[in-house]
Amino acid sequence: MNEAKESLRSIEQKYKLFQQQQFTFIAALEHCRENAHDKIRPITSIGQVQSYTDHHCNNSTDRRILLMFLDICTELNKLCQSFEALHSGTPVTNNLLEKCKSLVSQSNDLSSLRAKYPHDVVNHLSCDEARNHYGGVVSLVPIILDLMKEWIAHSEKLPRKSLQHVSEPHARQEVTAAAAPPSRTTGTQPRLRKHKRSQLKKDSPQPRGRDTRCSKPPWRPPGGKL
Prior knowledge:
Blueprint: H1 2-19, H2 22-35, H3 46-55, H4 60-86, H5 91-103, H6 127-133, H7 135-155, H8 161-179, H9 185-203
């Protein structure tokens, strides 16, 4: 989990640098749309930005900022895969992760996306740009970052795997003890006690002579006198 959080922080730092150059990003997309003779259609997907970069980008400044955006999207996609491998998930975390995976897909239609407060990326656009052309593409990354932060917040409330690992050896010992066959010595204990009793009888001194008759009353002659 710590590695995933560190990766997310790294992407956030890259996005902050990208956000400072939003006007450069919009200008690059505008140049590409002109070169592609595609001024009517809004930016609807990451795949469209990739296509513009590959086929309609004519200067290094535009290419640099477009590649920066695509690189952030690629890292977000990889982080989705890392999240998926961390734990099996709950209905809440699975729903958040599915939204992230859908948004970061190359073909996902992002034209209707609009980042809301506290994000102000849409406010930096003109009304026409925000409504018709670039509102979705500038909203994509902040929306995904918010969903990922929410995923981590919910995941940190789940039982830690380390606690499961601690309890496993103890549970394994209990299972082993329960499955072990009963000791053979328990069946021999009555016989041992019998043997000990018989051995004590043999070893104890036997009463001799008078001792054997001491329990009988003394003999009296007829008449009652000795």
